[in-house]
Amino acid sequence: MNQPKRAKILVVDDDPVVLKAVTSILQREGYPIVAIDDAVEGLTAAKDPSIDVAVLDINMPHLSGMDLLKAIKAERPDVEVIMMTAYATVETAVEAVKAGAYDYLTKPFEDIDDLSLTVGKAAERKALKDRTRALEEALTARSQFEDLIGQSSQMRAVFKLVETVSHSTATVLIQGESGTGKELVARAIHYRSARKDKPFVAVNCSALTETLLESELFGHMKGAFTGATGNKKGLFEAADGGTIFLDEIGDVPPATQVRLLRVLQEGEVKRVGANEPVKVDVRVIAATHVDLTRAKEQGRFREDLFYRLNVITIDLPPLRDRPEDVPLLAHHFLKLYAAKLDKKVTGFTPRAMEALTVNRWTGNVRELENVIERAVVLTSNEVLDVEDLPPGFQEAPQAGSPVEVFSLAHLPYAQAKRLAMRAFERRYLTALLEKNNNNVSSAARAAGVDRSNFRRLLKQYEVAGRTMKQRKSDGNDSSPLEVA
Predict the structure, then answer these.
(1) Residue 274: which residues within 8 A CB-CB, separation 6 or more?
(2) What pTM did the predictor assign?
(3) Are strands 268-269 and 278-279 parallel, antiparallel or unpaired?
């Protein structure tokens, strides 16, 4: 048969004879089996992400097979479920299928091949869905370069470097604070390279202990350590032909650094507990928020590994050093989460955008994204105002105040001056419109500016008066309202 042999099958039946028979039939077909004689325990076993297909009896004590089916589908809708019963009726079959069952078998089986064939088709269907989901995730990831947003000179330099290095096979080291988008850069490089149709594998090196990290990266042999119940490929083998992204490479223990050096030098890995190495063709992209040069000088990072990794370096600037990118990013995240949450939120008030722009953003782009998502979730307005932002943003500084000057003090003089000037011009235009009852022609004459140029300034600084409907509700519509 043509079914995937690696599919893992859960069998749940309170009849020990049937449980043993079904288990024996499926094991002969090469399936790894988890056999459970209690429905409640079966529900716990079904939460194992390695389970692909569940074969359940309908009539069981404590928890019926039908209830178990519904619970499994609620917890893991991707698992294919086959129901078994000795009391078959059309009604129960229809109910099982409506609840999400893949098929329905009657005990005793007229032909044991019926069981094997049905499980095989369910396993094929599960494998097909898994492949489809993986493809969709890959297609989504390929477009993620669009999430690397910026118009600042620093980000334009990053974009140019990404395009250049994508066509090589050289090792890349991405440096930057947490939240600056290092993985997005790594994905952008991969999906612009000749390896784009091969795997992109990401691993956070700081999230695992030394033993687990080596097992994840290089794989292990059965019995290599406690809990190693079988042979396992590592992520380097999984990424063969593609790219592996080693995030937080600066946190890798010294012993693992030695093994990484071998991969970079020899192009081969040795599984934990193995005697023979395995050849791999993998491009390595590493990232870190720590100063590797300093770590090298302090003896915390191997000098030879440092030079192997540091072939091409991409430095990602913190968000506080490129405030001109904040409005662009803020609008991007606003559009993203408004669509995701199906809410009509279209923009920001000038005060809100000023508050976002002058913030220091210690968490960088990730922090900005979280702030915008929170605001979209909580707001009942069509335009986000300062009050929709977290409490720290709501003390909006007044123009020219010491607080405002202090909030810009982390920026270079030219950037701080430009932001302060924008804030002044926006507030001046807003006040002028209010003084002239929102009449653009009158405000332009008062400012001594040509009307068309004044409208251009209003549009540039996103300044507009109240709507006609608002003016009528004020009982004052004697003059026409003009907005940019």
Answers:
(1) 219, 220, 221, 224
(2) 0.58
(3) antiparallel
